[in-house]
Backbone:
């Protein structure tokens, strides 16, 4: 079964609104989680590293004020896309690394901004 | 040079065929690599890990050539269900949690037809 759960799987929102995506590690604690974005016909690109109890670290070119990350507990990280625009439409995926195992991915969230 | 670069494909092969994908990486310090499989509109799922010279799991064989910084994935006796995008993955060159922060190749699309 899934070890990382992401919600919602699909969301359609109006331009200018904000959308929150949740990523949960189900049976292990994850002090670090990762957020990726995938545009159509492209590969996954790391957006940011979510750190439990501290600020997220963002990859170059990713606006931290637009993509708010909160990692308030050892099993939950949230990504909020603020003031979403059509160009933010993408597939967002989180992952968490389980010590001694591989990285596990959430099911992904397909965001469509209209 | 990109951190991870893959054969662009696409590959269209008949059932039962043997197909090989190639991948090169730029960070000579990387110790481990991964092949992930991604089905359309789904999250990536780990297919194989490669830590030493190679790894074999049933019909799948991954090989690593550190001197040439080259990884390959061989699929024998292709099945229709093997149709997917195959992603070559390496830990990020800039550090961080080795197995959590990943760099993905652009992916190779495989279609197996009857």
Residues:
């Amino acid at each position: 079964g899934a070890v990382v759960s992401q919600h919602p799987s699909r969301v359609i929102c109006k331009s200018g609104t904000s959308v929150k995506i949740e990523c949960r590690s189900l049976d292990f604690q994850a002090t670090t989680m990762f957020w990726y974005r995938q545009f159509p016909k492209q590969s996954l690109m790391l957006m940011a590293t979510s750190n439990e109890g501290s600020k997220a670290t963002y990859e170059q070119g990713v606006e931290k004020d637009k993509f708010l990350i909160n990692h308030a507990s050892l099993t939950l990280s949230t990504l909020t896309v603020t003031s979403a625009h059509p160009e933010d439409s993408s597939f967002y995926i989180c992952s968490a690394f389980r010590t001694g195992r591989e990285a596990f991915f959430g099911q992904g969230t397909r965001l469509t901004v209209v | 040079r990109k951190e991870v670069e893959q054969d662009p494909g696409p590959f269209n092969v008949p059932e039962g065929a043997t197909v090989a994908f190639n991948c090169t990486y730029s960070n000579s310090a990387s110790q481990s690599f991964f092949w992930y499989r991604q089905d359309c509109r789904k999250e990536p799922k780990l297919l194989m890990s490669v830590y030493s010279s190679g790894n074999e799991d049933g019909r799948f064989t991954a090989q690593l050539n550190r001197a040439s910084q080259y990884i390959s994935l061989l699929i024998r006796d292709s099945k229709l269900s093997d149709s997917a995008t195959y992603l070559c993955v390496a830990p990020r060159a800039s550090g961080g949690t080795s197995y959590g922060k990943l760099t993905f190749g652009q992916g190779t699309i495989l279609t197996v037809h009857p």
Summary: Chain A is about 0% helix and 55% strand. Chain A has a mean pLDDT of 92. The first strand of chain A starts at residue 4 and ends at 7. The interface with chain B takes residues 6, 32, 34, 36, 42-46, 49, 91, 93, 95-97, 102-103, 105-108, 110 of chain A (CB under 8 Å).
